[in-house]
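REQUEST FORM: STRUCTURE PREDICTION
Request ID: SP-0412
Submitted by: Lab K.M.
Chain count: 1
Length (residues): 95
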Amino acid sequence: MVDEDNDIDGAGEGARGGSPPPRHSRRLSDKILIAFHHACDQSDYEVAEQLLRILEMMLTRRPVSPDTNRRRNMESLVAAHERLWHLRHPEAPDR
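STATUS: Completed
RESULT:
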């Protein structure tokens, strides 16, 4: 049985037989965002903040190639900042 929470790359599926899975099925920025949410779920806000800083650095630096998903990436970054802020300030009223 494959533990889906620990099988981020999906390597367990291809290991059972058939063709091997792609070595990198997700972008590094996607994996960092997943780790950020995992840290938030475990209330480890210091780690979540550091992961968010790394993600922000990756998404705001000059891209090597044109990224058609830049807007979606930036929206995900803003949403992650908002989630961390709300987790750290649970007493603040929503708008």
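NOTES: Residues 85 and 91 are 11 Å apart (CA to CA).
Reviewed by: T.R.
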